[in-house]
């Protein structure tokens, strides 16, 4: 099946470049372009794309507002892939909350752009380690500005590598031994619905790592991880794994350890 793509950017040369790259890949077709958010919303209704490659900063209706409206509309909703330069991390975080399914740097390679479109088109979410770092930083700043009494205290400047080191198994770790949690139990009421293993999977999701990497860390099969991820999303009412990352940092599921 051909993946139908709508390219949204206020720069004509950027749109032309994306169109050339995507149209060169068998199984992908750029069905239209839009130069601002309002035109994108209209084009989605007319062209019924599977994926929208969305710029963030545009005159008129910006990419955040357009993403929110596209995702909120009933019926068939395309996946939104945000293409950003990361010069505004708060935009990135807001786009996550608006319902975007993936993020990619504009200086990524053509192969990465093609892969990202394919990933979000099949219903998966794309969150690279670079994006995860930006989410962590943005979430920490927002938390510092708006304290939540139901969330455990967090440090304004988290360190991804420290998070990763906390999830690595010690040399004497047995496959079925219980893992060390990264946050205090009961940080948010909805988390009580998760099993210990599901919470552990959520903590690892928050690092932006793949199902295969999670399976290796937990000594389980990848199919088992997929089941746990689905359970986490369902119990917490989350749209996809990208939004699980947002939830994890907003509600103190993971935080830096001193």
What is the gist of this entry?
Residues 187-252 form the HTH luxR-type domain. With 258 residues, the chain is an alpha/beta fold. It is built from eleven helices and five strands.
Fold topology:
Layout: E1 3-8, H1 12-23, E2 28-34, H2 37-47, E3 51-55, H3 63-72, E4 79-84, H4 89-98, E5 102-105, H5 110-121, H6 129-145, H7 160-167, H8 196-205, H9 211-218, H10 222-236, H11 241-250
Parallel strand pairs: 1-2, 1-3, 3-4, 4-5
User: What is the name of the CATH topology of the largest domain?
Assistant: Rossmann fold
- Oligomeric state: single chain
Spatial extent as radius of gyration: 19 Å
Read across the widest sheet, the strand sequence of neighbours is: 2-1-3-4-5
Order of helices and strands: EHEHEHEHEHHHHHHH
Task: Say which CATH homologous superfamily of the largest domain is assigned.
Answer: Response regulator
- SSE class: alpha/beta
Helical content class: 40-55%
Distance between the termini: 50 Å
Shape designation: globular
Would you report the number of β strands? Answer: 5
Q: Which second-level CATH architecture of the largest domain applies?
A: 3-Layer(aba) Sandwich
Protein name: Response regulator transcription factor
InterPro entries: CheY-like_superfamily, NreC/VraR/RcsB-like_REC, Sig_transdc_resp-reg_C-effctor, Sig_transdc_resp-reg_receiver, Tscrpt_reg_LuxR_C, WalR-like
Domain HTH luxR-type: 187-252
Modified residues (4-aspartylphosphate): 55
């Amino acid at each position: 099946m051909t993946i139908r793509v709508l390219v949204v950017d206020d720069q004509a040369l950027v749109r032309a470049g994306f169109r050339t790259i995507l149209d060169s890949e068998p199984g992908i077709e750029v069905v239209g372009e839009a130069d601002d958010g309002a035109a994108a919303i209209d084009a989605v209704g007319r062209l019924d794309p599977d994926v929208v490659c969305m710029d963030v900063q545009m005159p008129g209706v910006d990419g955040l507002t357009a993403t929110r409206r596209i995702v909120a509309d009933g019926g068939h909703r395309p996946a939104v892939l945000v293409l950003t330069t990361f010069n505004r991390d708060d935009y990135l975080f807001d786009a996550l909350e608006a319902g975007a399914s993936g993020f990619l740097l504009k200086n990524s390679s053509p192969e990465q752009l093609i892969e990202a479109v394919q990933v979000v088109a099949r219903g998966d979410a794309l969150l690279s380690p670079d994006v995860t770092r930006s989410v962590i930083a943005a979430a920490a700043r927002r938390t510092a500005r708006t304290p939540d009494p139901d969330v455990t205290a967090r440090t304004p400047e988290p360190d991804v590598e420290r998070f990763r080191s906390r999830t690595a198994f010690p040399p004497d770790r047995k496959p079925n031994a219980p893992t060390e949690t990264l946050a205090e139990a009961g940080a948010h009421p909805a988390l009580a619905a998760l099993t210990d293993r599901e919470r552990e999977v959520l903590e690892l999701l928050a690092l932006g790592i793949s199902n295969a990497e999670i399976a290796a860390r937990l000594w389980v099969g990848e199919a088992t991880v997929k089941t746990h991820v689905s359970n986490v999303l369902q119990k917490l009412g989350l749209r996809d794994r990208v939004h699980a990352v947002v939830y994890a940092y907003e509600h103190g599921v993971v935080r830096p350890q001193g």
